[in-house]
Amino acid sequence: MSSNNDCIKFHLNIEDPNIVFSDYFKKYINGKYHSVYQAELIQPACPYCHSNNLKHNGHYTSNVRFITADASHPVTIRLKKQRVLCNDCLKRSMAQSNLVNKYCHISNASKRKVLAALTEDRSMTSIAREHNLSVNTIKSS
């Protein structure tokens, strides 16, 4: 592991050993500068038979919205989830993490922060602005 990877994991408070960060940059999106971190989620073994005999079968890229202390500088993790084919049981799978659910684009930490904010006496619009989410996303939480 590189020291850059360790620094980014420490900064974002991510402890998953299967996530490897490769790059960091700022991008201007919808009138705001987003901090974009590029990472890859690696599948170490088959979730069905626990074999290490895997064949790489592409990536599923998702832009994960991550929690931030400052709403004016949103954080996005461009996460490339590895898809693999197990050569032993011939089943396909995609790498999964506690950071984000499968096929989801909002981190679990952000969801927990929104649920905590919903217990306060505030409007859904102000909660959505603070967390850089839409009001419909807040309603479905």
What can you tell me about this protein's structure?
The protein is an alpha+beta fold and 141 residues long. The protein has two domains: 3-105, no CATH class; 107-141. It is built from four helices and five strands, in the order αβββββααα. It has helices spanning 3-12, 108-118, 124-131, 135-139; strands at 19-29, 32-41, 54-66, 75-86, 92-94. Strands 1, 2, 3, 4 and 5 form a five-stranded mixed sheet that branches. The longest helix is centred in the last third of the chain and has 11 residues, at 108-118. The relative contact order is 0.16. The model has no long low-confidence stretch (mean pLDDT 88).
Helical content stands at 10-25%
- Helix-strand makeup class: alpha+beta
The tally of beta strands, per DSSP, is 5
For the termini, the CA-CA separation is: 36 Å
The 3D shape can be described as: globular
Strand content: 25-35%
Largest sheet properties:
5 strands, mixed
Our Rg estimate from Cα atoms comes to: 17 Å
Give the integer mean of the pLDDT values: 88
Total DSSP helices: 4
The SSE order reads HEEEEEHHH
Uncertain stretches of 5 or more adjacent residues? none
Count of individual domains: 2
